[in-house]
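Hello,

Our lab assistant flagged a job as stuck in the queue for most of the afternoon. It eventually completed. Since we weren't sure the result was trustworthy after the delay, we are filing this so someone can double-check. Below is the sequence as submitted and the structure that was eventually returned. Let us know if re-running is recommended.
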Amino acid sequence: MKQIINSIKSEDFLSVLPTASRQMLLKQNLGEIELIELTKFLASEPSRGMATKGGSNWSPDLLNEVIKEIRLLLCTNDTKYDEFRKKVKEQASPTAKIVVILISNAISANIGFAAGILVPLIAIIFAVASKVTVEAWCSKIDKEFNSAQNNAT
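-- returned structure --
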């Protein structure tokens, strides 16, 4: 999975987003943006085309659940996504759009949200991950994840 994500350009992941969101993100240096803050900002701005339908923003729980699942998928060898990883590797040359849609579907089945709601968030996360490399993204998320677990105890 890491090789597939790293092989796709950040801009290709952003092409999945609505025009206004994509243009705003292309003006940013994605390698320097704090992912959680960026997604919260975009989700709270319905005019950016990122808020969930019928709501004004994404809940922090949704953001945390999606990041937790992407961490399991990309940064660990958790068996939860073994079958999914195998299916993606069987794709000849998956495009950013295909990867985002497939991962949105896989994660939505595990957290109980419609895949369409997850598409923009996953596109942003993968745009950032491909910009800084998946390894660097995983390292940062692992530190945040471990810190959050230590604070919870």
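-- support follow-up --
The delay was a queue issue, not a problem with the job. The result is valid. The first helix runs from residue 2 to 7. The mean pLDDT is 78.
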